[in-house]
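Ligand: fe (ii) ion. Inputs:
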Amino acid sequence: MASKAVKKPEKKAKKPVAPSSKALDIGIPADKLNAITAGLSRLLADTYSLYLKTHNYHWNVTGPQFNTLHTMFETQYTELALAVDEIAERIRALGAWAPGTYSEFARLSSVKEADGIPSADAMVADLAADQATVVRTARSVFPLAADASDEPTADLLTQRMQVHEKTAWMLRAMIA
Ligand SMILES: [Fe+2]
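Predicted complex:
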């Protein structure tokens, strides 16, 4: 007599389990930690989106300003590439998972994707506006960090705002 085929239980897709906040006892309550890491995730998504757009414009810029802009955009995307690592690792240090997929970044980001290949001036104007967008996101997270006496996050946000405000000014000055 043939034995009944034993049906194997279907494998469930592994869902990331939220890291236990119990292990993380740094003097910030879990609800405040969640608010801060959610805010930092939005900043990470903005920064990554701006990194990609700046790299895109580095590749595709044309015109008499090519050399200046190609080089300027490289300086900017290199700085952004280092920044995403700092932000993501701060999220991990606060006990949360860092978003790291294009779909998560698209959902979380306030920086919109490039639409086609703009003119050189339009690229500069677009990046200036996006740099300001990232400043606004960082500033919106700041009160959450301040409220929790999370000085390291406040320090990171301060540095990011300073860089983005300066870069926005330099971009605006290019087309003034
Ligand atoms: Fe390059």
